[in-house]
Every structure is written in structure tokens, then in C-alpha cells.
Write a structure and sequence with these properties.
Blueprint: H1 26-32, E1 42-49, E2 55-57, E3 65-68, H2 72-81, E4 86-92, H3 109-120, E5 125-130, E6 144-145, E7 148-149, H4 151-168, E8 172-175, H5 182-192, E9 201-206, H6 213-219, H7 239-251, E10 255-259, H8 265-274, E11 279-283, H9 285-296, H10 302-316, E12 320-323, H11 326-334
Parallel strand pairs: 1-3, 1-4, 1-12, 4-5, 5-8, 9-10, 10-11, 11-12
Antiparallel strand pairs: 2-3, 6-7
Helix pairs in contact: 3-4, 4-5, 8-10
Length: 335
């Protein structure tokens, strides 16, 4: 008996699905793709600081800068040419104090940045972060009493800050502090002062994460002592995130942020499945820095890794992605 060639297919094959037919060419793959990235999905964070002619690269975030207000025109022009529709603003004030007064100063660094951007390009969507950490000498997210963040004393500061940012022209205010009740007091303050049109984009599911390290260098917000685990969420909790989102929506938030994104894609998916509201993923500084470091060492294909990572966030359910990769990703997508 002659043995058959083991590499030859049998004369009669059992029935099976030919799924590779839909992967046979680039055109075919594009035609059947379920999830796609677009430049209009991105929000680009900006760190604005005092001074003139300042464009200071952030050491742990290659390609990201602290910039002075006179640099905004170039940034906005770049973003507009790339079709990126929105920015998220963080401020580095000249002075800080224990009461975070710089956060709600009508002539604060972010308030002036908002006015400058709106003068340059009224159609650019400006999202303003609402928190105390960048404006306090101790670097914590609220007012301290006995070395602890006092939730209820912090709420009026957050409300006043949100109103100040709205008055400067912010399209959206985004509280990131994780104080209980902050969405309700911000919503009520905006409505009471004539800014009822301004939506609240809540960092509803914000975890106490090690992925934020480079951001704290960028924003000058590293806590002088302790940590933020008393108010930011425990990484082990998923059901709690859904509860936090539900609370913030009930208190008046219109949009929701999950932060970080890459290690919390399960939270994004669960939030998307449960809540029919605009959902943003924050591709945070540590995620950006990790990819940049590996790329600079030649260990990964940066373009492919970035686009695949961002696609995973959108596939998990994000409508919008806040990312420091926005400019590069938009340029790659346009090629």
C-alpha cells in the first residue's frame, strides 16, 4: 500500500466556513471592517503655562510640551489641518496656594487660554478640566483639613471654577477631582449663572492608577505627601465604576470619561453596554510614555502599535479618545 502525501488535502473535505475570503485583500478588509478610527474621534490635551515663547518639552512625554499662550495659534492651526476637533486644557499657574484660587481666577492661565483659542478659531471645541491639584501647593485635588481632602469644602471651589471656565468660553467643563456630589453642584452652579448650555463631561470612572506619573510632571501636580486613593477608584473594582457613572448621570453629567483606558477596556465595554451616552476613553500619559519609550529604543513599530491601541479603545465602546498621540495618529490615518 502506498502512503498518501501527508501535505495533500483529502479528496473530499468536510464542510467548514471560509472566513479568510473576507481577509483576502486590503480593499476587502477595509470593506468589511467593523470598527474604524478617524481624526474626528480624537481630543488633544494641551498644557498651558505662563510666559512668552515657551515650548518646553516634557521629559517623560517625548513630543509633548508645556506651552505659553502665544504658542496656541500654531497648535490650533496644526490641529485644524489634521481635522482634530477638540482640545482638553490643563494649566500651570505662576503661583499656587492652599485654596486653589488660581483655578477660578477670571484671568487664570486656562481662562486666558480659552479666550485665546476662541479668538483664533471659534469652532475649535474647548474642554476645560476642573480640579484643584494644579493650583494647590500641596498638589491634592481639594481643600485639606488635617492633612485630608475635605469633600464638602472642596465642592464650592469646583463649582466656582466651572463657572469661571464657562464664562471664559469653555464649551464643556470636565471635573476630574472625584469628589462626591461635584457634578450636582457644578450643574446647579452653571444653570444658576446663565451657563446652562455648557455640558458636564465627568471623569466618572477615574482610577487611582500608576499610569498617571508623567502627567504629574507635565501639570506640576504631584502630591507633596500621601496619595489620591481616598477619592480615586480602587483598580480592583468594576461594579463600582458603573455605580459612579450612574450617579454622575443622575446628578446632571451629559458625557462620561473612563480613565485610564488601556488597562480598563473592560470598564469601557461595560459602560458602553449599560449607558447610552457619549463615552470618552482617556489614553493617559503613562500609556503614551510607555509606547514612546519602546519606539525610541526600536523595540516596536510605533505607528502600528499606536493605531492598534487606539482602535482597541474605540472597539471597546469609546465614542471619543483623549490622547497625546492625536496628532501623529491623525496624520497616519490621512496617508
Amino acid at each position: 500500500m502506498t502512503r498518501s502525501d501527508p501535505l495533500s488535502p483529502p479528496a473530499v473535505l468536510p464542510p467548514f466556513q471560509r472566513t479568510r475570503r473576507l481577509r483576502s485583500s486590503a480593499a476587502m478588509r477595509n470593506f468589511v471592517r467593523e470598527t474604524s478610527l478617524h481624526a474626528t474621534d480624537f481630543v488633544y490635551p494641551l498644557f498651558v503655562t505662563e510666559g512668552e515663547g515657551v515650548r518646553s518639552e516634557i521629559g517623560s512625554m517625548p513630543g509633548q510640551f508645556q506651552i505659553s499662550l502665544d504658542q496656541l495659534a500654531g497648535e490650533i492651526a496644526d490641529l485644524r489641518s489634521l481635522r482634530i476637533p477638540a482640545v482638553l486644557l490643563f494649566g500651570i499657574p505662576a503661583e499656587k496656594d492652599d485654596l486653589a484660587t488660581g483655578a477660578y481666577d477670571p484671568d487664570g492661565i486656562v481662562q486666558r487660554a480659552i479666550r485665546e483659542i476662541k479668538a483664533i478659531d471659534p469652532g475649535m471645541l474647548v474642554i476645560a478640566d476642573v480640579c484643584c491639584c494644579e493650583y494647590t501647593g500641596h498638589g491634592h485635588c481639594g481643600i485639606l483639613v488635617g492633612g485630608e481632602v475635605d469633600n464638602d469644602l472642596t465642592l464650592p471651589v469646583l463649582a466656582r471654577t466651572a463657572v469661571s471656565l464657562a464664562a471664559a468660553g469653555a464649551d464643556i467643563v470636565a471635573p476630574s477631582d472625584m469628589m462626591d456630589g461635584r457634578v450636582r453642584v457644578i450643574r446647579e452652579a452653571l444653570d444658576a449663572t446663565g451657563y446652562g448650555r455648557v455640558p458636564v463631561m465627568s471623569y466618572a470612572a477615574k482610577y487611582a492608577s500608576a499610569w498617571y506619573g508623567p502627567f504629574r510632571e507635565a501639570a506640576g501636580s504631584t502630591p507633596a505627601f500621601g496619595d489620591r486613593r481616598s477619592h480615586q477608584m480602587d483598580p480592583g473594582n468594576a461594579r463600582e465604576a458603573l455605580r459612579e457613572i450612574a450617579i454622575d448621570l443622575d446628578e446632571g453629567a451629559e458625557l462620561i470619561i473612563v480613565k485610564p483606558a488601556l488597562s480598563y477596556l473592560d470598564i469601557l465595554r461595560q459602560a458602553r453596554d449599560r449607558f447610552d451616552v457619549p463615552l470618552a476613553a482617556y489614553n493617559v500619559s503613562g500609556e503614551y510614555a510607555m509606547v514612546k519609550a519602546a519606539a525610541l529604543n526600536g523595540w516596536i513599530d510605533e505607528r502600528r502599535v499606536v493605531l492598534e491601541t487606539l482602535l482597541s479603545m474605540k472597539r471597546a465602546g469609546a465614542d471619543r479618545i483623549i490622547t497625546y498621540h492625536a496628532k501623529e495618529a491623525a496624520a497616519w490615518l490621512a496617508e
